[in-house]
Design brief:
This protein is of the alpha+beta class and 377 residues long. It is built from 6 helices and 23 strands. A hairpin with a 4-residue loop joins strand 21 and strand 22.
Length: 377
Amino acid sequence: MMARLWIAASPCVLGAALLGLSAPAWAGPGHDGGHDGPEATLSANSNNPKRLPDGSVFLPKPAQRQIGVRTTPVLGGELPRSLELAGRVVMDPNAGGKVQALVAGRIEPGPRGLLSIGETVKKGEVLAYVVPSSGAIERSNQAAQLAELRAARLLAEQRLARLKELADTVPRKDIEAASSEVGSLAERVAALTGGLSNRDALVAPVSGVIASSHVVAGQVVDARELAFEVVDPQRLRVEALAYDVELASDVASATLVVGTERLPLSFVGAARSLREQALPMVFRAEGPALSKLAVGQPVKVFVQTSSRVRGLRVPASALMKNPANETIVWVKIAPERFAPRTVTLAPLDGVSVVVTSGLKAGERVATQGATLINQIR
């Protein structure tokens, strides 16, 4: 009887034993051998952005939407050969000018007071006055000469009055001579009086805004000293230096990048003498984007020539640097995978560049969010 009960129960006992062997057994604290249990498995299988062993980046779709990744296919073709020139903003000589004192003297405010930078002025408007300065001896000599002229004019007027009373007996030519002498003395008195009390008016040469002011009320200035600069902010010019003299005869177009805007430039001409071993080239700039520029500001000018180079147009925002300081772009090789490509490039127009090697036509390049992709480790 006992033997049969043991035999009947043995399958149940065997199943329980196998179930106990297959169930996971967790060690107590400090006896887990350094593993984190289920957390390690969860971390290993997580769907997070990461850099893969081959250098590419795994970036899930939710992460791409979160950081704003945008890609665009690159197209090849014959693009103009371009050069990047260093330049600066200068005033148009027909729409700007300098206000200088003609005589040495003391500054006095104009009808609107002393205007500050940024204020609008009109052509011919008085900006300030210069009261001529002279020594005490010079002024005393002028005052003595003025007194003599006034006395002489008084005598001439009295003589003219007497001659007019004797008009019937005095020749007419004597009366005319006396009248001419009175007029001459009057004009000499007026001129000398104006010289003692007259003020030199500093007027605006063109309509525009005050670009710079170098005077204050009561300041003593010398002759030819700069007082104001007036410039029209909607009419400026850009002067660039070219180290290739032949470039002056091969300019097809030019652009200037202001922030995120492209400002087209018109080529005015090039100098015929070198400055600092470079050829100055002048471009005319017009448009609303000029309000972001200031006279003397350093800028970069991109000149497109008539010659062509074959390559791929890529936005400049897609260019990155790898740890070896090489220029790379991130190419989308799979829906959730980006690979770095080392490229060689040439300037184009400031917004885009020409990639001559490292890419193929039709490949999708990350143009937005490339900086964040480059930082994933």
